[in-house]
Amino acid sequence: MAYVTLMQDWITIQTSGASTVIQNEEQWLDMADFLDLSIQISTQNISGTSPVLSFKTSPSKDEALFQTMSSATFALTSSSNPAPVVVKYASAAVPLARYVRWELSGTGVTATFRIYVAGTTQGAILR
Fold first, then answer.
1. d(CA 72, CA 70)
2. Mean pLDDT of the region 103-127
3. Which residues contact 109 (CB under 8 A, 6 or more apart)?
4. In terms of Cα–Cα distance, which of 15, 14, 41, 9 is closest to 27?
């Protein structure tokens, strides 16, 4: 069965210089019951040099254990919304672990975005 949740409601982030902004810990998703996930991002007002939104996962909340999930990195542009990305446990170099968070990086970035995540449990198929 697939479950959909709002990972991040509309948020606008502005940075100066090269920097990385990490989602607040209180908003990290606990995906312990899920095997696969699909990420859908909506964007507005994207500017700056090389704005990238990536999704990291970890079996615990230890910073050193977070790794970028394969295929879950989005170069943000002002012209379009990224296509949904599916991270499948069976084929991912870095599969879904328990916790999932986003990180925004780039130089002088202004980005407005919203993120929905759909997770599937054992026996469900995510296409």
1. 5
2. 84
3. 13, 14, 15, 19, 47, 48, 49, 51
4. 9
Average pLDDT, the chain: 87
Q: How far apart are CA 119 and CA 89, in angstroms?
A: 11
- Kind and range of the H or E run holding 99: strand 99-120
Cα 112 from Cα 44, distance rounded (Å): 5
Model pTM? Answer: 0.86
CA dist., res. 75 & res. 90, Å (int): 25
H/E stretch holding 19 reads: strand 18-22
Locate the DSSP E strands across 1-127: 2-14, 18-22, 29-30, 36-58, 67-75, 85-87, 99-120
Can you read off the two tokens belonging to residue 54?
């990536």
